[in-house]
Model the fold of this input.
Amino acid sequence: MKAIIHKIKAVSMAFVVIFTTMSFTVDMHYCGDTLIDIAVFQEAKDCGMQMAMSTATSNEMKGMSCCHDEQIVSIGQDDLKPSFQKMDLEQQEFVVAFYGSYIQLFEYSETQTVPFDGYPPPDIVTDFVVLHEQFLI
Done:
């Protein structure tokens, strides 16, 4: 169960990174108040009224146009890796101290230290096994 939750979190974080860095444009073409075409990543097709208006003979018809285009632009994040120089001095000190203490957790020492090596056992004044006559058979 723990592995499944871990995989779900990993996939969701991957989608968050993808969608925050992705840029896209939605282009919409309206003729009057009616939406004619929607296009993502490319230009929307027009309804042909622009060409009909340009071929009109009267000057009054040339100036009038019922069509208009709208664009929704989403600009993604470009800088995913923050620079170490952009942090202030306290943040840099914290990162260096954290990194140093974290690396020390995984260092392998070949010498095995015995903490009680310098302390010899106490002298046996009396042998209690013999004194109380408790022998293992």
